[in-house]
Amino acid sequence: MSHTIKGLSESSVKYDGSPLRVAIVHARWNTTVIDALVAGAVAKLKERGVKDSNIIIQSVPGSFELPLACSRVISGAHIQAASNVTDLLGGLSFGSGNSRAGTPAPAGVVTMPNEPFDAVIAIGVLIKGSTMHFEYICDAVSHALMKVQLDSGVPVIFGVLTALTDEQALDRAGLTPTGHNHGEDWGLAAVEMGSHVRRWN
Ligand code: DLZ
Fold this sequence. Notes:
By secondary structure, this protein is of the alpha/beta class. It is built from 5 helices and 7 strands.
């Protein structure tokens, strides 16, 4: 039982992730934090029973690219998973970019089957700088990700940290002594929402 008023409370139901297929789409800006968040999400997906082969990871350059990538992943774009980084998360596939139909995958890249996803986790780390860039990207990305999930009916878990400082970002990825890895919450949210939507359909 947690004594904090903040954060995600544990569900009374243990959702079974074993039938689910989940995509993680992540940006590559602020990689140290991104890697911890992705690892946290994957750990919880696996803890809830999602099979390794049903966790697909696709990277994009920055958070601004997340909505389009999520939308295309949901609508069945072929995912290209780079095999050279599979070791990072114990045999999972890390994506390297969207393919164009008929275009052969670059060397070292494996094309994954395009079966439907039960949930997509969009992971990005935006850290405020000295210009308005941060505000524009935060606003655009959060609205666009909401639109993707409402238009598609597939849950898009909002895994975009909008941090005012480096310290805040590290804290929310569990990379400080008192921090908590929000990626874990996103993994659990993906299993819960994927299970709900299966039932609702
Ligand atoms: C340009 C930019 C800046 C300044 N900061 C971030 C950031 O903190 N986190 C992030 O994910 N992406 C950032 N980007 C890149 C944009 O998201 C995007 O990739 C580029 O503007 C190209 O569209």
